[in-house]
Specification:
three-stranded mixed β-sheet, three-stranded antiparallel β-sheet, alpha+beta, hypothetical protein PF0899 fold, single chain, elongated
Length: 117
Amino acid sequence: MHELSLIASVFDILEEKAREHGVSRVTAVVLHVGRMSGVVPELLESAFDSYKKGTLAEGARLEIVIVPVKLRCPDCGGASVREDTDFSCAACGSRRVEIVEGREIVVEKIELETDGA
């Protein structure tokens, strides 16, 4: 289950940002997860819920935004978003496409709270 190691890395980022900003709590985390990242969103949520116990993100909510696969065609210059597994250019049909989005896992947003808030 590599989702747990991914969440451990996310918590490293959360702790670093909390120290940087002198805050006591993380209230929300937004992750952008590419459709082709190999991550199962439900397992990521479960790992987050397990990992957050006893941390500065104990009460935090996790929002996962699925990033679709975006292709660019070097033959015609076209760009397309694919929901299926057809990795060909929607404009010219070329199969020499480059995946430009859809494999990433990014901490997009962290909501932080201080003791007084």
